[in-house]
Each structure stands twice: as structure tokens, then as C-alpha cells.
Design goal:
- The protein is an alpha/beta fold and 273 residues long.
- 32% of the residues lie in helices and 16% in strands.
- The protein has a single domain (3-269), classed as Purple Acid Phosphatase, chain A, domain 2.
- It contains 9 helices and 13 strands.
- The strands form 3 sheets. A 5-stranded mixed β-sheet has the order 3-2-1-12-13, covered by helices on one side.
- Strand 4 and strand 5 form a beta hairpin.
- Helix 3 packs across helix 5 (93-101).
- It is globular and about 45 Å long.
- The two termini are 29 Å apart.
- The model has no long low-confidence stretch (mean pLDDT 93).
Length: 273
Amino acid sequence: MAVWAIGDIQGCFDSFQELLTKIAFNPKEDELWIAGDLVNRGNKSLETLNYLYSIKDSIKVILGNHDIALIAIYHGIKKSNATLDPIIEAPNGKELIDWLRHQPFLHWDYTLGYAMAHAGISPQFDFGMAITYSARIEKKLQGRNYKSWLRHMFKVNSNKFNSRASSMDIEKYILSSFTRMRFCGDDGRLDFKQKGRPTELKVGLKGLKPWFSCPTRKNISMKIVFGHWSTLGYYQDTHVLSLDTGCLWGGSLTAARLDVDEPILVQVRCKKG
């Protein structure tokens, strides 16, 4: 059995299918990890969701910010757009949305030594905290009052974890860190405005670093697979593996094989469909 992780698909279904062919993915034998942001902006978000749902027993999906937005759009909390309308209008739309909101924010495999979260794991969390807090917001999203909870989540973000804050502020931070995080300050405070590559300008003048380089980051022994950061692109060190290579923006869609000593990288150029 091969275990492959794939970065943000964002509705680029044709590129996704080409990549699966290139890695010879067999859903009866192999396992696929999807690092969130399955939909939006690409032309075939519905086809992407339908396919993933059809092989749901062979995949591990974690939620990204665009997936959360889709759930909110379906319930009228946010406005839709042309790439997501087909999902909203599909006869099986409710089935797909219900499946999506029952996916986790964090997946891990101790044997492989990898954990996966869409934007990463907050520098303020050790792995036990990450497990606990991801489960906390999963319970909210899967619960009876999830629509009301989502409305609160789309208000102003919390950028610093404070265990004495209100429940809503704590959960805003948890959700934002798992789905929208890129940069942090030396004190671990997250910056959600900066979206570009880590540069000397950001690190020097703004005092910002990638979240995984935060000097106060808590130690996590497993390697963290994440997406979300297309301008960072493919990046790997001993602690992290970044797989969003900007397919939607004219880049590539990337898969990395995880069940080997060193990740094997496979890419296809994006077809935007």
C-alpha cells in the first residue's frame, strides 16, 4: 500500500486526475491524504467533491478555509460564487456538505511519523493540544447548532491563543490557526494579512516569520504536512512538508509519497479545470 499526500486541489479536477494517473493511485490498495481546500476558484469543484466522496473509504481529508467557506455558503452565511454554485445547486449537494463538515481539521499517523493540517499547527500548541483543540472545533462543526457557531466564526479573528478568553474567541483562534495561518511574530501572535513568500522584508522590517520558524514554537516530533500557502510553494525540512504549489494560479499540483524513508515528489502542471 502506498500513502500519498496531495496539496490544495481547489476544484482543479483535471489536474487532480492527471496526478492520480501519474502516481498510479489505486483506491482499492492505496491511501490518499488531502491537505484541505478541495474546492473554490477552479472550474470543477463539484466534480472534485463527487470523486472524493466516491472513494471516501480510501482517503484522509482535512478541512481548509475554502471548505469551511463552502459549508457556510450552503447555509446562507456567506455569498456564493460561480465555481461553487454547482455544488449548492446539485441534487446531492446536502449529502456532500454533510460529508464535508464531518471531516477533521487534523489527521496523523504515528507509524508514518506524519501529521496533516491545512495551514499547519499553531506554534502555541504541542501535539496533545493540537489533538484536543482540533477535536473541540470538529465537535462544534458536527453538532446540532453548527450554523450558529459558523456565523460567529466568520467574525473578527483571534490571533493569539489565550486559555482564559471566551469560548468563542478560543475557538476562533483554533479554527483560524488550523485553516488560515502563515506568519507569526516572535511571541507566537499570528498575522493573517500577509500572504506572500517569506522574505527579508517580512522577516526583518515586519518582524514576521513562517509559523514553523517561530522561536517560541512548541516541539512536535512528527513532521507536519500542510497546504494553504501557494506563494511558499513546495518546502521541506525536518519538521514540515508544504504541498500547496499553486496549481490554481498556473503552478503545479503536487503529491508526496509518505510511506518511504524520504518523501517522493510527483507533480503535474495545472490545467485550471
